[in-house]
Queue: 3 jobs
Job 1
Amino acid sequence: MIRHVVHFTWSDAADEDRRAQTVAALRRLPEQVPGSLAFTVAPDAGLVEGNAHTVLVADFPDAGTFRAYAADPVHLAVIAEHVRPYLAARSAVQYEL
């Protein structure tokens, strides 16, 4: 199994409403793009200064399924419309469970 973890830090252009819209768009991905076994998107709890603003954690049965998700046109459209225009920083990791 592959776990995909992404940390998003939003730019100043991403006000609270925009962040909520982006989180909602990311949360719809499992309904629109097949393959994930578990999928969570959540804002940071605000317990430590300097954390990223939002996290996405998704589990896939194998690397091929993750790659198909990553290349899916719906996924890419969500990234292009809801993420990239408001992104200050992003980091990601995929690892085997």
Job 2
Amino acid sequence: MATADAAGHPHVVPLCFALAGAHLYFVVDAKPKNPGGRALKRMRNIAENPHVAVVADDYAEDWTALAYCMVRGDAAIVTAAGERRRALTALRARYPQYRTMSLDGPAHPVVRITPRHVHLWRASAPLVTRRGDGAPALPRVAPTRRPKPPRPPAPRRPR
């Protein structure tokens, strides 16, 4: 996930996230972090500038099978108890490590990312971009290699 502070200085960290409904969620978990909770750089950045980007990479040794999804959106700390419960349920379903962690209290804020733009790319399949309202933009085909320029016609020989 990429965040930026109010001055636009970027900060990128790996992220454990889950999709629930139309939102992505993450939690500041119980792994050792100093400082933790809302004092983390990513959390301070979100407080100053809610615009974030998340990239999920689908790596393959066969580079014709590479793919990724980039989500740009707005992040906010979840304050509603019901939404927090749903987010933690989704996170625990995806990450068994979270099932044994206590993620209650202010040291473990849950963050909602509301997607504004989703960009899907595959090395050998159609490229799909979604507008901020979720509607697909015009699909484009991602080239697998740079096209060669057309050859000029061969000169004609006199007869």
Job 3
Amino acid sequence: MSDYWPAHDPETLPLFASPTRAPAVQSSPTSMASADAIGASLNALQRSVVSFLRSRGDHGATDEEIATGLQMNPSTARPRRIELVRRGLVVEAGTRRAMSGRYATAWRLA
């Protein structure tokens, strides 16, 4: 064992602490649904996305607009939106051009 890491039971290391979201097999809809059911309440970032989309009404927002509007890193915002879609709280609201000039899906509350 290294001098830098004292001997610990792997079950007590922070890496193995109870997760904020239950693990799921990404390609299995039933596994993802079960994982979402375990953690039924929304976390703070998910609530931020819901609040932002609520403020946008039926017009909705693209992932880029969500990230910009919430001053959130896109790699944080998009997964939170995907989680909300899986839970049935967010649905597609059409497409429109993003700042890049490409078409992007807009999302709104269900």
